[in-house]
Design goal:
This protein has 119 residues and is mainly beta. It has a single domain, classed as Sandwich (Immunoglobulin-like), CATH 2.60.40.2890. Helices cover 13% and strands 44% of the residues. The chain has a four-stranded mixed β-sheet, with no helix packed on it. The chain has a four-stranded antiparallel β-sheet with strand order 3-2-5-6, with no helix packed on it. The relative contact order is 0.22.
């Protein structure tokens, strides 16, 4: 009768599960600090466009993006009966070390902070 070595198989599966949870792309957090919901929110950059839908006042969302090289950001959304478009000055690359936070303020301007995480 053969015995299957469960311990090595379980260890391998746990390692794969841990790796699957790691971000492999830049992470973008979008924060709505305005007093109104942002509807039809779309963020785009070099080689990607991500529709985010609606972001309520005080709400934030975090997504992974996959730029096709060096990138900046562009935001499009509706709020307060108007369409808003913003291309804040920022730069990031297609690396999981980049953490990008975009804050949409009371006046619907977008400020972006880009940080590079260490290993």
């Amino acid at each position: 009768m053969r015995r299957i070595a469960i311990h090595p198989i379980l260890t391998a599966l746990l390692c794969l599960a841990a790796l699957a949870g790691c971000a492999r792309q830049p992470q973008l957090t979008v924060v709505n600090q305005s007093s109104m919901p942002l509807t039809n929110l779309v963020v785009s950059g070099s080689g990607f466009t991500v529709p985010l839908g609606t972001l309520a006042p005080g709400e934030q969302t975090r997504i992974g993006v996959s730029p096709s090289g060096d990138s900046s950001l562009r935001f499009e959304f509706d709020a307060g009966g108007k369409h808003h478009s913003s291309a804040p000055d920022c730069y990031f690359e297609n690396s999981p070390l980049y953490r990008v936070t975009a804050v949409i303020g009371l006046d619907f301007t977008v400020k972006v902070d880009v940080r590079i995480e260490k290993y």
